Amino acid sequence: MQGKKGLIVGIANDRSYATFITESLLKAGAQCAFTHLPGEKMERRCRNALTELGLTDPWLMPMDAGSDADLDAVFAKLKADWGTIDFVVHSIAFADKSWLEKGKFCATPR
Fold first, then answer.
1. Domains of the chain: which residue ranges?
2. Closest CA relative to residue 46, chosen from 36, 56, 58, 54
3. Rounded Cα–Cα distance for residues 48 and 30 (Å)
4. Which residue, of 17, 27, 97, 106, is most buried by count of CB atoms within 10 Å of its CB?
5. Cβ(7)–Cβ(78) below 8 Å
6. Which pTM value belongs to this model?
7. CA 14 to chain centre
8. What is the CATH number of domain 5-107?
């Protein structure tokens, strides 16, 4: 991963799968950008997790994955700052129990 650049989506705290994935990517030489859920509390949690990984000034933006405007803004800013990226880590997990009913999984909303 040396010299590769990518976006990590889903660091909510220091116990998130995305945090451990980031740790491995950084050790392998990757450069990572990050998003957090909107709001000061979520930004603080994400920054704290990144600080524990040794990142003091990470590329970080708020993003609601259910918002096309947020997605467009993140990728536009990332393109302006970095040009292209080599990978995306999607580590967002939420599913309403009703979405997982047998036979309805393909109808799961965004």
1. 5-107
2. 36
3. 20
4. 17
5. yes
6. 0.84
7. 13
8. 3.40.50.720
